[in-house]
Design a protein that fits this description.
The structure holds 2 protein chains of 2 kinds. By secondary structure, chain A is an alpha/beta fold. Chain A is built from 12 helices and 12 strands. In chain A, a hairpin with a 4-residue loop joins strand 11 (about 380-390) and strand 12 (about 395-400). The model of chain A has no long low-confidence stretch (mean pLDDT about 95). Classes of the chains: A alpha/beta, B alpha/beta.
């Protein structure tokens, strides 16, 4: 039974990214303007000294000690577990019995970090390579490592729509609550840096050799990052038992397809415009109601002009504050929607706006400029979070203050 | 709420694509790997796109297009996809080049097309379809999640038609790796002898099956999809039985309302034990059919099963290929499958 008007609340958050190993540490870095982008230390790659990335500052061994998962499993699972566990504990649901709880996760390449080490031996000899390194290759296998460790069983699934994956997992989770299929959903995504992804993006020539400059006239590309971000979504009935700890409400969401090109966005930003408009429409809000946009803002020439054009079309003539926190975390692909959802609800809860780092020359084609300094004591009513991906998959979420 | 299956498009190791008698000639392959019968793609996809597409992308796209052709729908209101492995061939190509060429001289095509959402995205691109588009990648729940997404969208009443599909391929590499995990039979076997083998392992399969689902009935609907339900890692047979009873109860039905049970037996002596146990208890009085001798085992084989169950209801015919002929009309089918005893799913269909 679907109830359109049923509210879905954010009761807990968890994040691990290049700017912090937990929510508090990430917030501190956002306030201090400290980015997590630097030289590659974890991957064995020829691009080590030429392509900066945003690495999580925890080794697999350290993540293993914190999470209890073996250090030998995919780093994506380790990162996912770290953030999902934080969100789960933060929500403080364990005293509530018999809740129907699900995990809706997302990632872009599953256990690829391990598959890479398997495949080198395998292509030389089909009996070569250790099977334990490929057993969790599938995207869903990574999710199950987390589900099993947290003890979530009622519903487990995984979405992969490239860079919009975890925005989709969050609103799929919300819909499962609105349809009364679940009471609680841990939703978000995780992705670890891999050579596969690094080389893939490098062939597309959209990686910046310097720290990225989203929405700058002279932007050169994106920096890949890694991490995980999860929110704990709860139904109204569950929320009533948890009043002290709610971050906000997921009031709008939408998914549209750009249908322009497998990897490039349309110049007019058709998909992103439709996603933002759809989310506004569902929430019953007007563009002027949005206090802050957490931009997709990758720093590629193509994304930023496409997204910016869509924002101009939708918001003209008055623009909300906006910024790309990818200038801090890099582009964490399947995790980005989850990480940025956490940042979005923190903006609501704490009344803060994040800066868009390294913005030197605003884009001439756009009539607005993202924020460049951290701002406190702002009343943030509604935050729009954008996530756009390969395959034209565009999704937008709106979080609203209670 | 009823979800109507208005049209299908199914590329499988059998002759299943497009109109024609239902499984008239059983295709027999011997070995431990059933390969899809591929159509003439020119009928479905512009030649300049075909050249760049890998096999699974072509199969998925063509199955989706056939489904839309049959439905007479040019642009569905949403597209939802399930694929456990994504585009394995392209993933393997890029990985291999990256490793053997020491990360040098790489080209983007295989990487671009390795992304799990490529099939759904390519269909959207070909149709210029800007609507909702989602891809689920959760092993033996991939297709069921896509179905649930579609059914929720239809119930939300924001859409009237959803194109929902399942697609997975076997590649030489995936077959070699999964063989090492002991998934497949060591001895060559004809698919028609799958259920007589009683040995360890199954036969690998693949396929691309699409469905045009709608909340509005039409004169040519196959069947109604009344429920899809998944459960993860049940503790034992009793829990499986509880889930099945729970779903039926939720639908206001009892076991006697089910005319036919379609089970996911795959010939593996251990895994099939679960089906055989149910056959002695809750399904003891039901006519039962299996489907994996037709399509092989893969995580989204329930796409094939849904096509088969819907086709049986539409055609009012149980084809010989299922080796069974129960009496009476088949108005309601329950499909029960498990993948590796991890991912269990139920699909309930009825005549419109």
């Amino acid at each position: 039974m679907y109830t359109k008007s049923a509210a879905v609340y954010v009761a807990g958050v968890g994040v691990v990214s290049a700017i912090g190993n937990n929510t508090a540490a990430c917030l501190q870095s956002l306030e201090n303007g400290v980015a997590g982008i630097g030289p590659i230390t974890s991957l064995d790659t020829i691009h080590k000294n030429s392509l900066p990335v945003a690495e999580v500052k925890l080794t697999n061994q350290e993540l293993s000690e914190i999470t209890g998962l073996p250090a030998t499993v995919s780093r994506t699972a380790l990162l996912g577990m770290k953030a999902a566990k934080e969100a789960w504990v933060d929500a403080g649901l364990s005293h509530l019995p018999a809740l129907r709880t699900g995990l809706v996760s997302a990632n872009s390449v599953g256990g690829m970090d391990k598959t890479e080490s398997f495949f080198g031996s395998f292509i030389q000899d089909s009996q070569g390579g250790r099977l334990k390194n490929v057993v969790n290759h599938e995207c869903g296998a990574v999710t199950e490592l987390v589900a099993d460790a947290v003890g979530i069983k009622h519903l487990v699934t995984t979405i992969s729509t490239a860079c919009s994956s975890s925005a989709n997992s969050i609103f799929y989770g919300a819909r499962l609550i609105k349809h009364n299929i679940l009471d609680v959903v841990v939703a978000g995504g995780a992705d670890a840096l891999t050579k596969f992804t690094l080389n893939g993006f490098n062939t597309l020539q959209i990686l910046d050799k310097e720290p990225c400059q989203p929405f700058d006239e002279n932007r050169r590309g994106l920096n890949l990052g890694e991490g995980a971000g999860y929110v704990v979504l709860v139904s109204e009935a569950v929320a009533k038992k948890l009043k002290n700890n709610l971050y906000g409400r997921l009031s709008g969401y939408s998914n549209a397809n750009d249908a322009h090109h497998q990897t490039a966005s349309s110049p007019e930003g058709t998909g992103s415009y439709m996603a933002m408009r759809g989310a506004l429409s569902l929430s019953g809000l007007e563009p002027k109601d949005i206090s802050y946009i957490n931009l997709h803002g990758t720093g590629t020439y193509n994304n930023d002009i496409s997204e910016g054009t869509a924002i101009r079309r939708l918001f003209e003539p008055s623009y909300p504050k906006m910024s790309s926190t990818k200038s801090f975390t890099g582009h964490t692909l399947g995790a980005s929607g989850g990480i940025e959802a956490v940042f979005s609800v923190l903006a609501l809860k704490h009344g803060i706006i994040y800066p868009n780092l390294r913005l030197q020359t605003p884009m001439q084609a756009l009539p607005f400029v993202p924020e460049t300094v951290f701002q406190k004591n702002i009343t943030v009513h509604h935050v729009l979070s954008n996530s756009f991906g390969f395959g034209g998959n565009c999704s937008s979420l709106i979080f609203s203050k209670l | 709420m009823k979800t109507f299956i208005r049209a299908t498009g199914n590329i499988s190791p059998q002759e299943t694509l497009g109109p024609g008698p239902l499984l008239q000639d059983l295709v027999i392959q011997t070995g431990n790997r059933l390969a899809c019968i591929e159509p003439d793609y020119l009928k479905y996809i512009d030649i300049k796109f075909i050249r760049r597409m890998s096999r699974i992308i072509k199969m998925g796209t063509a199955a989706g297009m056939e489904c839309l052709l049959e439905a007479g729908v040019k642009n569905p209101d949403a597209i939802t996809m399930g694929t456990a492995y994504g585009c394995l061939e392209d993933t393997g190509v890029f990985l291999k080049k990256m490793l053997t060429q020491n990360e040098e001289m790489l080209t983007p095509t295989a990487f671009i097309q390795s992304t799990h959402n490529t099939i759904g995205a390519q269909i959207a691109l070909l149709l210029q379809c800007h609507n909702y588009n989602n891809t689920f990648v959760h092993r033996g729940f991939s297709f069921e999640s896509a179905l649930l997404d579609a059914m929720m969208l239809l119930e939300e009443n924001t859409v009237q038609t959803v194109l929902t599909g399942a697609a997975d391929e076997i590649t030489d590499a995936s077959h070699a790796i999964l063989s090492r995990f002991g998934l497949y039979k060591k001895e060559p076997i004809a698919n028609t002898d799958l259920f007589a083998s009683h040995t360890k392992g199954t036969i690998a399969g693949e396929g691309a099956a699409f469905f045009l689902l709608s909340n509005q009935p039409s004169a040519t609907d196959y069947a109604s999809l009344d429920a899809v339900y998944t459960f993860y890692k049940p503790a034992g047979i009793v829990e499986v039985e509880e889930h099945i009873a729970g779903l039926l109860e939720q639908q206001g039905l009892s076991l006697t309302d089910i005319d036919l049970v379609m089970e996911g037996n795959n010939g593996d002596a251990t895994g099939d034990g679960i089906y055989y146990a149910l056959d002695k208890t809750i399904f003891a009085r039901h006519p039962k059919v299996y489907y994996k001798h037709l399509c092989g085992e893969y995580p989204t084989s329930t796409g094939f099963a849904l096509w088969l169950a819907a086709s049986i209801i539409k055609n009012k015919l149980l084809p010989f290929a299922l080796g069974h002929s129960p009496s009476g009309d088949i108005k309601r089918i329950l499909v029960y499958n498990h993948y590796e005893n991890l991912h269990h799913s139920l699909m309930l269909l009825s005549a419109c």
